[in-house]
Amino acid sequence: xKDMLEQYDxxxxxxxxxxxxxxxxxxxxxxxxxxxxxKTEPLFISTLLHGNETTGLYALQKLLRNYHEDGLPRSIxxxxxxxxxxEAGMRRLDEQVDYNRVWPGTHQHYLAEAHMxxxxxxxxxxKNVWASIDIHNNTGKNPHYxxxxxxxxxxxxxxxLFSETLVxxxxxxxxxxxxxxxxxxxxxxxCGLSGDEAGxxxxxxxxxxxxxxxxxxxxxxxxxxxxHTVARVKIPEGYSFGFENDATINLLPEIENYNFCELDAGxxxxxxxxxxxxxxxxxxxxxxxVGREFFEYEADKILLKKPIMPAMITMNxxxxxxxxxxxxxxxxxxxx
Length: 336
Known about the structure:
The chain has eight helices and 17 strands. With 336 residues, it is α/β, with parallel strands linked by helices.
């Protein structure tokens, strides 16, 4: 089998100034770049697992320019993921799998991409990886927040350095942060919309703090707000949908403003064609369909059945179809 992964022990020429759509001229395939620093246990940073989520690349370029003369305080291993999708400005190409669903723990372990992610994970385990940061963007209006897969102090400290808003999740399976959670403290950063300079600067400041951190248990106390995802909402394949009142399921345009708002039961989510029997699906952590727990139907409306907080609602219909409409969350107490 042809190796899908390229490795480098120094920055490829042109990397620091490459735009995401031109990165394929420098990195022909997914690449793992190892850079030496003063502390030898490396910080792992992944970016462009989704090709249209560019904040991680721009923040890394700024970070590495800053340390170009003085050297890094800690070794870094950078995984640059879906360069082909980045060329096209897409989350993934139609013929591709999602690069953040094929890490160890995935149900699709037989895929070539899953073998590649297993190799990356094995390499970093051999290097005694110190911490892991996966950088993403949202396609809808969301605050900056951090996601963790284990409710342990080093994980919460790593996440809390980025945001006081933390989301604990265990599904979907096969995500990068969950795979690396078995090796080291890990976090997924959600950095708002791609192209927002404030998001790039926030990630840059965060990476600088983490690189200069000796022990994550030493991080100062934080006023953390913790949420747990309880369901992932999808549009059933058999129904057309949109925001223009011309489909079977017509999502309300204002739902993008629902992100990270604690909504009351009875809040409307969509209008449906009369007598269409259209509905929204919701899948819990065990991938059971539990939509009837969260949605009720009144005439031509889909309403929330219980108080809940959505996250990652997007107006991008392609992303909704490729991934999901949103996640539903509940507030949870911080572990003692």
